[in-house]
C-alpha cells in the first residue's frame, strides 16, 4: 500500500479559507496564543512562513510590520495576494528552502502557524529560518501537539514519528500530516542555533467554552497544539 503524502492544500484552499477564520479552535485558541508569543512587530521585517490565505500576514501589516508571505500552495498564494492587495510581498515557495527567493539575514521575525506538521525535514526548515533571521531574531511557531492524538502515541509509540491520516469533519477531508515527539522539535531547533525562550500549552479561554463547549472540554484534557518562541544566537 502506498504511503500517503501530506495534504496538498491546493485541493482545499477555497473551503479552508472560507471556514477557518471563524472556527473557535483557530480564532479563540491557536491565534491568541501565537500572537501572545510575538515580539513587537512595528517597523520590523517579518516572514510569514506558510502563510495560507494570509490571515497572519494581514495582522502583521496592520500592526506596522514589513511582511513577506510565502506558501508552497499556489492556490493559497493567490488567496493571500487577494487579501493583502499589495500591502505585502507574497511568493510561492517551500519554507525548507527559500534560497532562490530570499536573502540571508533579511528578517527580524519568522512566524510559522500550523505548518511544521506538513514538513518532512524539520532540520532543513529550522536551518532555513536561521539563515533568514538576523542575529537575535525570533522564530515563533505553532504545530500539532505530540499528544493530540491519544491513540497514535500508544501505537506505534510516542517516540516514533509517523505520517498519519485524520478526518477533519468541518472540511469533509481526510488530512495527512506528521505526528512527532517533542524531541523532534527541540533537537533540530538547537542544532540550527536557536535558544528556546517559551514553550506554551495553553488553557482554553472562557469565550471558547461559550462557543464550543465540547471543544473546550477536550482541550482542557488534551492540548491540540504546542507553541514555541525561539531566538537565534546573537553571535
List keywords for this structure.
235 residues, alpha/beta, 27% strand
Short description:
The chain is of the alpha/beta class.
Please describe what this structure looks like.
The chain has 235 residues and is α/β, with parallel strands linked by helices. Helices cover 34% and strands 27% of the residues. The protein is built from nine helices and nine strands. A seven-stranded mixed sheet has the order 3-2-1-4-5-9-8, with helices on both faces. Helix 4 links the parallel strand 2 (66-71) and strand 3 (89-92). Helix 5 crosses helix 7. The radius of gyration is 17 Å and the shape is globular.
- Average pLDDT: 91
Tally of DSSP β-strands:
9
Question: Major sheet: order of its strands?
Answer: 3-2-1-4-5-9-8
Uncertain parts: none
Q: Given the structure, what is the number of helices?
A: 9
**Amino-to-carboxy terminus distance:** 48 Å
Biggest sheet character: 7 strands, mixed
> What percent of residues adopt helix (DSSP H or I)?
25-40%
Radius of gyration: 17 Å
H/E element order: HHEHEHEEHEHEEHEHHE
Overall 3D form: globular
Q: How much of the polypeptide forms β-strand, as a percent range? A: 25-35%
Helix-strand category: alpha/beta
Amino acid at each position: 500500500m502506498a504511503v500517503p503524502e501530506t495534504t496538498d492544500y491546493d485541493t482545499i484552499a477555497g473551503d479552508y479559507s472560507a471556514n477557518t477564520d471563524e472556527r473557535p479552535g483557530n480564532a479563540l485558541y491557536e491565534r491568541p496564543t501565537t500572537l501572545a508569543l510575538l515580539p513587537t512587530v512595528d517597523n520590523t521585517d517579518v516572514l510569514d512562513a506558510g502563510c495560507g490565505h494570509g490571515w497572519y500576514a494581514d495582522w502583521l501589516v496592520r500592526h506596522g510590520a514589513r511582511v513577506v508571505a510565502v506558501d508552497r500552495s499556489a492556490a493559497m498564494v493567490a488567496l493571500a495576494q487577494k487579501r493583502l492587495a499589495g500591502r505585502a510581498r507574497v511568493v510561492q515557495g517551500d519554507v525548507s528552502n527559500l534560497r532562490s527567493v530570499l536573502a540571508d539575514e533579511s528578517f527580524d521575525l519568522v512566524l510559522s502557524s500550523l505548518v511544521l506538521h506538513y514538513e518532512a525535514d524539520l532540520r532543513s526548515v529550522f536551518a532555513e529560518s536561521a539563515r533568514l533571521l538576523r542575529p537575535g531574531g525570533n522564530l515563533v511557531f505553532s504545530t500539532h501537539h505530540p499528544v493530540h492524538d491519544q491513540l497514535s502515541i500508544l501505537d506505534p509509540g510516542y517516540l516514533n514519528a509517523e505520517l498519519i491520516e485524520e478526518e477533519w469533519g468541518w472540511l469533509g477531508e481526510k488530512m495527512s500530516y506528521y505526528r512527532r515527539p517533542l524531541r523532534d522539535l527541540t533537537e533540530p531547533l538547537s542544532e540550527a542555533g536557536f535558544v528556546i525562550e517559551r514553550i506554551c500549552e495553553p488553557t482554553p479561554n472562557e469565550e471558547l467554552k461559550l462557543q464550543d463547549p465540547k471543544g473546550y472540554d477536550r482541550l482542557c484534557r488534551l492540548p491540540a497544539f504546542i507553541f514555541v518562541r525561539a531566538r537565534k544566537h546573537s553571535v
